[in-house]
Design goal:
The chain is mostly helical. The chain has a domain of 38 residues: Orthogonal Bundle (Histone, subunit A), CATH 1.10.20. It is 38% helix and 4% strand. It contains three helices and two strands; from the N terminus they run αααββ. A hairpin with a 2-residue loop joins strand 1 and strand 2. The chain is elongated.
């Protein structure tokens, strides 16, 4: 697939980009190269190749959730500068 200079100018205008002639020529050439490569990839025979979401095998590094005993409120508030009725006391930040 070939992209024209006019298509690059049109897309730049839609994206509200102010491109000079040199940038338009550069992007036209670069986008043309990308689209040409995509055409090459589209010609590759992928029959029988399973779909993937990542190019490499991904492992989930998270541990399994386990229900555990909570920290007692007294211990959680033990080092708090100020506590009241089982809660932290903090400065008011919203008027």
């Amino acid at each position: 697939m070939k992209i024209t200079r006019e298509e690059v100018v049109h897309v730049a205008r839609l994206a509200r980009l102010n491109l000079d002639d040199e940038a338009i020529e550069l992007y036209t050439r670069q986008l043309g190269d990308i689209l040409s490569y995509m055409d090459t990839l589209n010609r590759v025979d992928t029959e029988g190749v399973p779909s993937t979401s990542h190019a490499i095998f991904m492992n989930n590094a998270f541990r399994e959730d386990e229900v555990k005993e909570s920290i007692p409120a007294e211990k959680a508030l033990g080092n708090a500068p100020q506590a009241e009725d089982g809660s932290f006391v903090v400065p008011k930040v919203i008027g």
